[in-house]
## 1
Amino acid sequence: MNNSAIGVFDSGMGGLTCVKELHSLMPNENIIYFGDTARIPYGTRSRETIMKYAAQDIALMKKHDVKMIIAACGTVSSVVGMEKKDADGIPFTGVLLPTVQAACAKTRNGKVGVIGTSATIKSGSFAKAIRTIKPSISVVGAACPMFVPLVENGFSDRDNKVAQLVAAQYLEPLKREGVDTLILGCTHYPILHDVIADCMGEGVELISTGSEAAKFACAYLTRHDMLAERETDGEISFYSSDSTEMFRENAESFLGEKIKGSVTKVEMEELTSLA
Amino acid sequence: MNNSAIGVFDSGMGGLTCVKELHSLMPNENIIYFGDTARIPYGTRSRETIMKYAAQDIALMKKHDVKMIIAACGTVSSVVGMEKKDADGIPFTGVLLPTVQAACAKTRNGKVGVIGTSATIKSGSFAKAIRTIKPSISVVGAACPMFVPLVENGFSDRDNKVAQLVAAQYLEPLKREGVDTLILGCTHYPILHDVIADCMGEGVELISTGSEAAKFACAYLTRHDMLAERETDGEISFYSSDSTEMFRENAESFLGEKIKGSVTKVEMEELTSLA
């Protein structure tokens, strides 16, 4: 038993898709979420800068004495890699391992597609991770750098022509290869689920990183007897590096409901001094 | 006569459109450019965060002993406002005053449109500035938050369908109002010039902020006898807060040519410690 909170961080709001799933799987758990909204997006930055930001995000989580840290961010997970399994003794997971395990279990024709930010696809991390688990699977990747701005600016409805056009352009190589399983390698992408599903056509299974990371964390905490023992619903506390009001306004589309808990500002000076 | 450099900064690469014009108007001037590529974009962040980032950018310029500072960034200019005319004794200009002066001189029907980032349009700064100069002019603003990602991800050719669709949606209210002059209130937007011009139709004059800021600086330095006296071409030195390689790769589309001078990394710790 362990009543400490689960720590989740992301470059912005996308990781809230993971929080939503965590809360649904383990309603009694306290969760601490940090969205680095003053420095979003991570996915177009250099490896060096992403590593530095991630180290600061992890240090912030540790300050809050969490029992497990989830990098609910495809970019950070890709750059950090699959080997990192703890942060100074605190269990750690990115979205990489949980997601590729799900993809390997689900594909029937052995062709898996991966979409993500430029940094994620450039790292080749999902393809490498899949090959480690099941070398016979062929992997096709495509960077979709416009997907995050589309989501953040409201171009995400199923019938949105702009989203459809951009998706058609980015996903064309994956359709040509005939993948039957598609990893949405960025926690923003579930918001574009319908547009992506329509474009890929029937019979292609979409895998959401945030959701798989949440299932992975649930299994880990259960296996290690680290679940909270609490009669009531757990508390979710939110932290953001930019305006807390903006965070509240934008959270609903990722979380599926309005934020009930507190949102606290993390000053940039604090963040950069941490690691 | 003053042989110090002119300092120009922006959230990223867009301000290079101003550097290009400065170098063309005053080829003998040294120019120092800083692009805050580790924290781009500014335009979707809160006023408080933008003010902090701008203060740090200005402090960095001052460290380099420049003779004039240009905030070649529509968002910073809007948030800082038109009143700021020096930074501890160093002449300062944003793009606001130069651009609205040009717009007021050019409009024939007294209807001016302004497009920019969410922060720029929300601030209402261009409209206020225009009313100060010529209260009879009516101003229509439209936030175009997708334009920066479109430019940064290569969706900017004249015949690009995605860019055309997004432009049609954003610019519709300005067309309906019949503006004859349109301020491109973000230094990224000149890259979308053709798409915007086609959408607005003939007879609408587009005003580029970077270019107007450069003309303003040239006039200021001439009037105050602060031009450089140098036989040879001036040097342009570049600084960026993210990868200098990425900066080099992306600069050409804004600068119109490959970077000849040096590109130096500014560490985030240095930047946040400055102001």
Note: Chain B has a mean pLDDT of 94.
## 2
Amino acid sequence: MTGTESSTDHRQGGILEVAVLDLRGRDTTAFKTALSEAMPLIRRQPGCRSAELRPCLENPQRYLLLVNWADVAAHEDGFRRSEDYRRWRALLHGFYEPFPLVEHYGPPL
Amino acid sequence: MTGTESSTDHRQGGILEVAVLDLRGRDTTAFKTALSEAMPLIRRQPGCRSAELRPCLENPQRYLLLVNWADVAAHEDGFRRSEDYRRWRALLHGFYEPFPLVEHYGPPL
């Protein structure tokens, strides 16, 4: 991950996917290695404008995933039905406990 | 709120304040009116690079506050000890139930 993308992008009223990721274990090295393979998969999806993962400063096992999508369908009908999502899931889902709540937020008020 | 700011800003490794705001009542009109007065207060703080509030698409009583700060001190030692924060609190805190968890996230990995 380069850290050069912006978590929000106001072109055409895109939406923001937000997920708080709580890791099962304390060793985050394997998680970060998996992320380095996973983040390009989501960034190359049609309708994905940017994606980033930030570490929580108060809780070392918590991370925040922020993904800008053109619309909810790009995430739910596009990415989640793709081969890339199957690979994303295989790479990352084993690290989470509990399984994260994923929400979508509209453009800023 | 203009919606022209970006929720992240990677200059000098700033941090992101994140708060999920759950409103007590179903009428969001008064909340939005209060916000129109409150958001300029936080945006003018030293070290505040941008601030935005987004509505949750799955839950009409939920909002996400994202604030880019130069560092945690700008938020906790600066804003929270300011007169502007007292006004911010008076304007907004009565709308929340429960009181929101506020977390800080470091620069993107």
Note: The CA atoms of residues 49 and 68 of chain A lie 5 Å apart.
